[in-house]
Amino acid sequence: MRLKDKKIIALVENDFEDLELWYPVLRLQEEGAKVDLIGKEANKKYIGKYGVPAESAYAFSDINIDSYDAILVPGGWAPDKLRRYPEVLDFVRAMDKAEKPIGQICHAGWVLISADILKGRKVTSTPGIKDDMANAGATWVDEPVTVDGHIFSSRRPPDLPPYVKAFADKLASQ
Hints:
By secondary structure, the protein is α/β, with parallel strands linked by helices. The chain has a single domain (7-173), classed as Rossmann fold, CATH 3.40.50.880. The protein has 6 helices and 11 strands. β1, α1 and β2 form a beta-alpha-beta unit. The longest helix is centred in the last third of the chain and has 14 residues, at 160-173. The radius of gyration is 14 Å and the shape is globular. The relative contact order is 0.17.
């Protein structure tokens, strides 16, 4: 259990991409990490694009970001909602400043764009937001997983295995 002492935030909002939330959560839990689902409201059931539910353990206002080792932002349409919450942007900026792992897949890049942390970074995402990423100052590449320091980015569900492995390896090395 190489991640047994690690605490990770997985952000959640309606219309998350089901696999892009649950695959990383379950894989990191298998490695021993404690993964908390965090949403605008605590104990609320959020529904994914394909109907899979996810219940938040805590509200944004309930947590101390400094007590977490990493953050995951799922894709789907949830990132367009998540980036509108000042707390989410503060969480991402705090993780960036502390150089703690930030994972984003598919449309999750929108959250990092709104947090204004992509200038000069190399990232990937769904090709649909390639221009958004470039306009935020990032260098966009078409790869299954891209690691730039503590930022881990991926394109879509078929890329989940190498994305989550890279993220877990980084956490295990800290």
